[in-house]
Amino acid sequence: MPWSHHSHSGQFCGHATNTLEEVVQTAISKKMSTFCVTEHIARQESDFYPGEGDVHTQKTLAKLYDDFYHEARRLQQKYADQIQLLIGFEGEWIRDYSLGLIQDLLEKYEVDLFVGSVHHVHTVPIDYDVAMYHKARDVAGGSDERIFEDYFDSQFEMLKALKPPLVGHFDLIRLNSDQPDRSFKTWPVVWEKILRNLKFVAEYGGVLELNSSSLRKGMTEAYPQSEICKEFKDLGGRFTFSDDSHGVHQVGLNYDRTWNNVMRAGMTELYYLAPIAGEEKPHDPRFPRVCWQRKSVFAVKEHPFFQS
């Protein structure tokens, strides 16, 4: 303990810092027991971020993931006696081609998980900066309420198509909104779509990450907000910790504040991925080597990481 199931490095992600090995070494120094490395997958050039086309093509982005995978396997073996390093990717759900890219990657590589994420609405990035969020919002109809509806509809399409084992930053859409800490319940249609998505994730057995990255970006709660966590918990849903780190200084950052979501939602247990042992069965036949393990929140809280 503790764990992170979502991370990046500057070696394989243009908006992160530090090498993958430095990130892993930092996780070890913080006495993490499980650390999942999940770099981004390729995108078509029409969906590149500003300036990205100056250094990459879709082909070179695909090769970057290939290089990441082989380096992650090397580090997995090198540090096997110090940390459980698991390997996956963070998916991108943008246009029709996204499904094929993710399916191809799952066929090409034996991974332990992938993070199902939505970073775009109407093909426009909603977490890159405020200007791009406003552009996407204009396409959606000009209000936060309208773009929130479209975001959760897009997320639902991703969930139905992929059934990701881990759902990334469930309510990322609030990052650049006018009121990022506003209760979703104040918008009945948005809340209805959230409940629909949560029910679907609970039914297929997906896990929501308590993603601490929102806290370093100025919000008061981790993703997802505690009101969402409470609903998912009541549906029998499962949660895990993720730092969504983009460099060594963000590994395990703000986990103490993420604990607030656990308490407010009344969680009694958290989950982490671990290798199959004995008669255990995989959580998903696509990932035959791992399964979700349960840990009491009280046992987690007693870990020295949370006592410092």
From TrEMBL:
PANTHER family: HISTIDINOL PHOSPHATASE-RELATED, HISTIDINOL-PHOSPHATASE
GO cellular component: cytoplasm
Similarity comment: family membership: Belongs to the PHP hydrolase family. HisK subfamily.
GO BP annotations listed: L-histidine biosynthetic process
EC top class, as a word: hydrolase
Species: Zasmidium cellare ATCC 36951
Top-level taxonomic group: Eukaryota
Reactions it catalyzes: L-histidinol phosphate + H2O = L-histidinol + phosphate
Xref: InterPro entries: Histidinol_P_phosphatase_HisJ (IPR010140), PHP_dom (IPR004013), Pol/histidinol_Pase-like (IPR016195)
Molecular-function GO terms, alphabetical: histidinol-phosphatase activity
Enzyme Commission number(s) from the entry: 3.1.3.15
Protein name, per record: Histidinol-phosphatase
Pathway: Amino-acid biosynthesis; L-histidine biosynthesis; L-histidine from 5-phospho-alpha-D-ribose 1-diphosphate: step 8/9
Keyword list, A-Z: Amino-acid biosynthesis, Histidine biosynthesis, Hydrolase
The UniProt record lists the keyword Chloroplast: no
Domain PHP residue range list: 5-213
Gene3D superfamilies: Metal-dependent hydrolases (3.20.20.140)
